[in-house]
Specification:
Blueprint lengths: L4 E3 L8 E3 L13 H12 L5 H12 L4 H28 L10 H4 L2
Helix pairs in contact: 1-2, 1-3, 2-3
The structure holds zinc ion.
Zinc ion binds next to loops.
């Protein structure tokens, strides 16, 4: 999937941008497929970062604990924001507000 682009088809405009741009896949050193594998281990297998690193190392050869831990942290934050918004929607009637995140919650 890496090396694939979105291209604008409007008129003569042929602007391109990578499919990573402005998504959760931008910025990481892992390929998109590797990142998806990490996410699978987080959400479906419910592994912790160390277990996921060990298993992904067996499958893909190289996988750094730091990369896996960073993605797990990201996933945890997203779940937290989602839950907070759900809570606000039902309890306080305020959906879609920016959520302030207490870092200590995410310390591992
Ligand atoms: Zn365009």
């Amino acid at each position: 999937m890496d090396g694939v682009y979105w291209r604008c088809n409007k008129g003569k405009c042929r602007n391109k941008c990578t499919i990573r741009q402005d998504t959760m896949f931008s910025g990481a050193r892992l390929t998109i497929m590797e990142q998806l594998r990490v996410m699978f281990h987080y959400f479906v297998r419910n592994y912790n970062a160390l277990q996921a690193t060990i298993e992904l190392k067996e499958i893909t050869g190289i996988m750094s604990y730091r990369s896996v831990a960073a993605l797990f942290r990201f996933a945890r934050t997203q779940v937290h924001v989602y839950m907070q918004n759900q809570f606000r929607k039902t309890k306080l009637g305020r959906n879609g507000r920016a959520v302030e995140i207490d870092e200590s919650i995410f310390a591992t």
